[in-house]
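=== RUN LOG ===
request id: a7f3
mode: sequence -> structure
chains: 1
length: 186
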Amino acid sequence: MKVLTILIIAVSLPLTVVAEETLRFENLNARIGLTDTGISFLGRAFNLAVSSDIYRVTPEIEIVAGLNYWSKGKSYDLWGTVSTAEVSVRTFSIEGLAKYNFATVGDRFRPFAAGGLALHFIEATGEVVGPYAASESAGTTKLGLDVCGGAEYALQGAFDLVGEIKFVTIEGDLRSSFQVGAIYKF
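=== RESULT ===
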């Protein structure tokens, strides 16, 4: 809880100063992708992400706020019994990134790189169904480092396409994801 309080204060104080003049939502970026869960027996999971460029520092540098979610579950027959084990993990994260847009010839293709901090809310549940019934759940909050790169491709009108590869480190555990989506410009 202390980490959450410190993160909220650290992010909100500079934004409060900036908000009076230039804080705005320039776009809405919605993506879907595959993410590495970091748990070997669960493998990869589909993830959903939304973000928005909320502050332009320079023409090339933007501050991005985003939300990410994934959930994965699996059932196992317990060998030698009539019981089944069900395991599920879900993660919701709030991220703040600094994004650098590389200069290119033309307006349509825009590569970028970004990095920043994210607060990950992780919940795991396990349940044994059958004659040996039991259940357990646990939740934790972890601070992670996010680094990503990708490109945006301008379409006609208010929409763009986006693709990115993201690497997330939580307490030394590296996870990766690949996401594609669309951007709606306000």
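=== NOTES ===
The first helix runs from residue 2 to 19.
Residues 2-185 form a domain with the Porin fold (CATH 2.40.160.20).
=== END ===
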